[in-house]
Every structure is written in structure tokens, then in C-alpha cells.
Design goal:
Elements: E1 8-11, H1 26-37, E2 41-44, H2 54-60, E3 65-68, E4 73-76, E5 81-85, H3 90-104, E6 108-113, E7 120-122, E8 136-137, H4 141-144, E9 149-155, H5 161-172, E10 176-182, E11 185-190, H6 195-206, E12 213-217, H7 223-228, E13 231-234, H8 240-245, E14 248-249, H9 257-267
Parallel strand pairs: 1-2, 1-12, 7-8, 12-13, 13-14
Antiparallel strand pairs: 3-4, 4-5, 6-7, 6-9, 9-11, 10-11
Helix pairs in contact: 1-9, 3-5
């Protein structure tokens, strides 16, 4: 029997573990089970808040700890409770938003509210991705700020995601952090918050070190997670910024890229 070299397998969801139809292939499921049987825990680390993640965890039979909301929420799936939850300072977020709009003009907005049942609010003009994930449309801007938030989403009518992210970071870098989490998904989150923040908290609870972790991802918001883990593996479909810092590039999320790596490690 070979010895699996890691005690923790950290996977992003969208564009990484999930295929385009939000399913996890049988091959990837089997590889994760085999890694678990070899002594490695699997932990999901996603930008999605808990309400948009829970149904996937249920489908996987996942009862451990998951990191949600770009690291803001450390969630115990088996107990259906938040172990930690960090919210976005709404006054700072409002100030940051006004500064960005002063640079680039009006933005379309959405937001994730805090909590196990936190709603995702979608404002006028915001291009929401098609799919089954629930959201609540709003018209009155006051609704956006009426309850604690984990993040804001911003979109611009003409700037690309990369352009908007760069300008926003340069404009409000000392107030909040700005991350590119997926196509059309530029987020404003608390200053200093990253996936590595939540992953390190979860790993300590599991008694696992960064040096014992392999991480898989596809977008720039996974860069801090790659920096924390011993090995970072980018999917073939990953953003160029993540590929630039990855230790390895595997197949795409549609090509069982996670399974390809885990199977090789299990054979070695």
C-alpha cells in the first residue's frame, strides 16, 4: 500500500469540483473517497455563502467542516451551524462603493447577507448567472444595507472583470479587499479576508497543518489558499493569474482534473 502524502485535500467548488451543471462526477467522488480512506480529510473552500453551498454538501454526504463566503464562514455541515462568521463593515463598504463609482461610474450591485439562511440580494441591472440558486431582487437601495452582509458583488456595464477588479483594488485597497471569484463575480469583502483565513481556522480544528495540505482551484480568489497550502493545483480552465502561482496544472473541471491528481498520488 502506498502512503498518501497529504492529510487535507482542499477544493474550491465552481470551476473546480463542480462541473458546469453543478454536479460532481462519479470518478471525482471515488477519488475523494479513496483519499479519505488513505487518511486525508476533504474540505470544501468556496466563495459561496452557506445557503448556496448546503445542497451540494448534502448531495456529497458531507458532514465535516466547510469554508464558505471567501473564508468569512466556517461551517459545520454535520451540525448545520456556523463556527465562525465575519461580516462586512457596511459603513466602510458604502464608502468603498462610492469611491469606486466616482472612478468608473454607476455599478450594478448584489449582496450576500450573513447567517445560515442569509439571502442573496440582486439589484437592478445585475446580471445573475442562470441556475437554481435562490435570490431576492430589490429596488430600494436601502434594502441592501438593512442587515449584516458577508460581501458585496459589483458589475460594470463595459469594463471586463479583470479591469474592474484592478481599478477597484487601486481605489479602495486600504478600506476593503476586492476579489475576482468567477466570471462576472467581482466581490467586495472585509479587508484581509481570504480563503486562506477560513482554511487555516478549519485546519487547526482538524489538527492539520498547511504543510500537509493540497489545494485545488480555478480563480484568483484561490491564490491565497495556494500560498497557504503545501501544494496548489490549478484546473486547466483556471484564470491565468492562478496558473502563474500554481505548482501544477491538471485537467479541467469537466475532465476530472481533481481525480487525475488524486489517483496519481494514491498510486505513488
Amino acid at each position: 500500500m502506498s502512503t498518501f502524502p497529504y492529510r487535507l485535500v482542499a477544493t474550491d467548488l465552481d470551476g473546480t469540483l463542480l462541473r458546469a451543471d453543478e454536479s460532481v462526477s462519479e470518478r471525482t467522488r471515488a477519488a475523494l473517497v479513496a483519499a479519505s480512506e488513505a487518511g486525508a480529510a476533504h474540505i470544501i473552500v468556496t466563495g459561496r455563502g452557506v445557503p448556496w453551498t448546503r445542497h451540494i454538501l448534502d448531495d456529497l454526504g458531507y458532514e465535516g467542516i466547510a469554508v464558505c463566503g471567501q473564508g468569512a464562514q466556517v461551517y459545520h455541515a454535520g451540525e448545520d451551524r456556523l463556527l465562525t462568521s465575519l461580516t462586512l463593515d457596511r459603513q466602510l463598504a458604502g464608502l468603498a462603493l462610492s469611491k469606486i463609482e466616482a472612478e468608473v461610474g454607476p455599478l450594478a450591485l448584489a449582496a450576500s447577507r450573513d447567517g445560515l439562511e442569509g439571502e442573496v440580494l440582486i439589484g437592478p441591472g445585475y446580471r445573475n448567472q442562470e441556475g437554481p440558486l435562490p435570490y431576492v431582487p430589490y429596488e430600494d437601495p436601502a434594502e441592501l444595507w438593512a442587515a449584516p452582509l458577508t460581501k458585496l458583488y459589483i458589475q460594470h456595464p463595459t469594463l471586463t472583470d479583470d479591469e474592474l477588479t484592478l481599478i477597484a483594488r487601486e481605489t479602495v485597497g486600504g478600506l476593503v479587499d476586492v476579489v475576482l471569484a468567477g466570471p462576472g463575480i467581482v466581490e467586495i469583502v472585509p479587508l484581509g479576508l481570504t480563503k486562506a483565513t477560513g482554511l487555516s481556522i478549519a485546519a487547526r480544528r482538524l489538527g492539520v497543518k498547511a504543510a500537509e495540505t493540497i489545494a485545488f482551484g480555478d480563480m484568483p480568489n484561490d491564490i491565497p489558499m495556494f500560498g497557504w497550502a503545501a501544494r496548489g493545483v490549478a484546473m486547466a480552465n483556471a484564470h491565468v493569474e492562478l496558473k502563474a502561482v500554481a505548482d501544477e496544472v491538471t485537467g479541467s473541471n469537466e475532465e476530472d482534473g481533481i481525480a487525475v491528481v488524486l489517483e496519481r498520488l494514491l498510486r505513488s
